Amino acid sequence: MRVLFATDLSAASEAAIKDQTCLECLGRIGVDEMHLLTVVPSNVHAGMPGVDFEKRRREALSNYEDVLLEAGFDVESHVVRGTPHRRVTGIAETIHADMILVGSRGKSPLENRLIGSTVRNLARTASVPLLVNRIERATDDPDPLQSHLFQRMLYATDFSENAERAFKEFSHLRHATQEATLVHVRKPKGQELDEPSPEVQSKLDELAGTLEDWGIETEIDVRDGDPATQILEAGAEHEPTTILLGSRGKSRLRRLLLGSVSEQVVAEAAGNVLLVPPVR
Question: Among 27, 38, 40, 190, which is most exposed with the fewest C-beta within 10 angstroms?
Fold first, then answer.
């Protein structure tokens, strides 16, 4: 598997790339090739006196390369210019990446609905799965909020085509996953709902059976209410290391707008999020 690690060379990015447990998790799911990418924004001019931004960034990336090479990955670095999220998605497609990985500071009480603009734009436009690795806030030497990436997964499903596409990620995640919670949220229309219908329960049991066959201890959690709110509450209750879900969108316009559920979960989840986009 090939992963594109997009970094702005911040403390959050450094924490994500230097966490040995996270690197071991990537190795377990079959990642053997890492591409490091940093983007020099278009408004930073190469001719600014006394400053060679590209040289500085290549030197900084060399420290990351050493860490990844020591961990056993094949490594290639890229320093490019342009709009960050556009260059990231473009390079990911060019190198046929299987996943994009970014480090992102966890939310603060004053920013409970905000994420970095680059991460938000990647969530809207990436054509391969996007793994947002949450990093501590308010410290100069941050650590990832979760040491393990895939040990405890929370998978949210509405049984849509995109949710099914996200579930297929377990085909390689299973090598690093020990526990999983399957979350399905029903939308009540002003009335209380009874137990899940036999059809819904059968689908959930089938998914759980697949995971159990892979040796993953699995539980089912059916909830009523607003999907994004309930997924986030389930995350707070079950404390997964990563929330896995698919994003909606059939047309190019809808892909750019991103489903509100996906965007809210990416923005507000306390832990990591693995967002799987629809097929273009």
Answer: 190
Which amino acid belongs to residue 34? Answer: M
Reported confidence tier of residue 172, pLDDT bands at 50, 70, 90: very high
CA-based torsion, 243, 245, 232, 107: positive or negative: positive
- DSSP states of 6-41 as a string? E--SSHHHHHHHH-HHHHHHHHHTT--EEEEEEEEE
Total-model pTM: 0.86
Q: What are phi and psi of 41, to 5 degrees?
A: -55, 150
Is it true that domain 152-276 has CATH number 3.40.50.620?
Answer: yes
Calculate the dihedral angle through the C-alpha atoms of 4, 94, 261, 145, rounding to the nearest 10 degrees.
0
- pLDDT tens digits, 250-263: 444 444 444 578 88
CA dist 27 → 57, 72, 94 (Å):
26, 9, 22
Q: In the chain, where are the structural domains located?
A: 2-135, 152-276
Query: If DSSP codes are grouped into helix, strand and coil, which group holds residue 218?
Result: strand
Strands 74-82 and 33-41: parallel
Q: How many residues does the chain have?
A: 280
